[in-house]
Fold this protein.
Amino acid sequence: MLELLAGFITELRNAGLPVSLTENLDAMHAISHIPLEDREAFKYALGATLVKNNAHWRSFETVFEVYFSLRGPEYSISDGEGSIEDFLQQMQDQQMQGEGNGGAGGMDSLTPEELMNILMNALMNGDQAMMRALARQAVQRFAGMEPGRPVGGTYYLYRTLRNLDLDGMLDKLMEASKQQVGGELTNLEERLEKDEYNHRIEQFKQEVEAEIRRRLVA
């Protein structure tokens, strides 16, 4: 349980939520007073202690649903016990590990298909925090960055975007929009939707480029 919660908080930080050590402790205390088999109670107990800004709630919900839905039986939220001291130590270990691998956190366990599904949802919802976290993961997986290699950021950007197939993503987003309205879009609606999705895809590309620059100068 401690490892699971520590990994979840690492993912929240990767998504841009500022979670402090005090809030970590508050979360641990909060979930000790609720039935862990109650998923909704578990979710809102964590949200009440870890989300301090309403603007972060949607990102919290996205990370929660992705993180806990992808855990196997060995990560059951009702298994295991531990002390606050154990939790603090594991949080420190998780943070050090995250810094060492570029902040990838628990997203390392995602399959390429799962990663693309999460990216599609983030683009549909305009979820900037999740796009930022996914950009980190995409660069780590696909850029193939090596210390001292004499190539520029453009090469790494090309390698990353080639594996993401964002042109195909636009088609999927448009198809999903049609399904949401239960039929065809008008010409105006289709143009507006396409413009908005293109804008979000460009924002994601900028996040990827920014992550590559960050790693090049690190």
